[in-house]
């Protein structure tokens, strides 16, 4: 596999174990899609989502390609149980009816920022340049369709195009927040992280071929910091939606929030250190263990990129290694690869 200077290295596989490795890679991709789907649903307003909603979102993100059986599970619930065991999600099984699924640690921050309507959230935050989105004034909803018409396209798209052509004043276009602007928000967030080590790793991730994806992968190792990013993103998208509403007198009555503002919980005023306790010389990247091999590889790769700029060097690196070894359980110590000679040298 060819990689750039910012690609995550992949281990080579032999022909004998290729089939199992392929399924392992697909399972890895499925867990990543799961986390991204829950994050997207939670950014739209809720701190958790039902299992069925998550499965639908995963299907949408994979163009219908996700199937639990394809990655070795009989049921979607079995897939969720494994995801919980690996630390990707928290499952609320006491909820009546369908279970609810959340990103670990998300509950504590629930409701701390404005909760947008899902249709408006997606219209503003999805930066796909090939998609157009319009607010329908007399129906109080958002419609989304490919910008360029295509032969034999679904009837629903053709009908919307006809309605817009016949009654353009009944539709207000929504310009999405660009990819570049959202990446700028990520860079601003990375620079504001108080731990210089974590800030550098996030900055390195944003220099990669897939900056947004790897930025979130690194943040997954810091659940509280990931919550702060989600809240910061919601606030920024919410602000852009308010600007859109204020730009046109026809939109004055549009409800941006998912629930009335009076029903929103009070904003938590926790100090920054209580939200993301990543300061101090003994703090490791990551704050919580990354149980997925691909995520660990990503974090370790960008940590290595940051170390080239002087984050770890000489005595500092040795000190950090000693500190890490002191904290590791025996089961992890036995996994460390050390040339045997160093174990017997005086």
What's the arrangement of secondary structure elements?
Layout: H1 18-43, E1 49-50, H2 51-61, H3 76-85, E2 90-92, E3 100-102, H4 118-125, E4 131-136, E5 141-146, H5 155-166, E6 171-173, H6 179-192, H7 196-205, H8 211-219, H9 223-246, H10 272-275, H11 293-307, H12 314-327, H13 330-333, H14 341-344
Antiparallel strand pairs: 1-3, 2-3, 4-5, 4-6
Helix pairs in contact: 1-2, 4-9, 6-7, 7-8, 7-11
Strand content: 5-15%
Measured on Cα atoms, how large is the radius of gyration? 23 Å
Morphology call: globular
Strand line-up in the sheet with most strands: 1-3-2
Low-pLDDT residue intervals, each spanning 5 or more residues? 1-5, 8-18, 107-113, 260-284, 286-292
How many helices? The count is 14
How is the biggest beta sheet arranged? 3 strands, antiparallel
Give the class from helix and strand content and strand pairing: mainly alpha
Distance between the termini: 42 Å
Percent of residues in helical segments?
A: 40-55%
Kindly report the average pLDDT value.
Answer: 75
Main features:
disordered N terminus, three-stranded antiparallel beta sheet, mainly alpha, globular, 14 helices, 346 residues, 6 strands
Structure description:
The chain has helices at 18-43, 51-61, 76-85, 118-125, 155-166, 179-192, 196-205, 211-219, 223-246, 272-275, 293-307, 314-327, 330-333, 341-344; strands at 49-50, 90-92, 100-102, 131-136, 141-146, 171-173. With 346 residues, the protein is mainly alpha-helical. Helix 6 runs antiparallel to helix 7 and helix 7 packs antiparallel against helix 8. The longest helix has 26 residues, at 18-43. The protein is globular, with a radius of gyration of 23 Å. The model is unreliable at 1-5, 8-18, 107-113, 260-284 and 286-292 (pLDDT under 50).
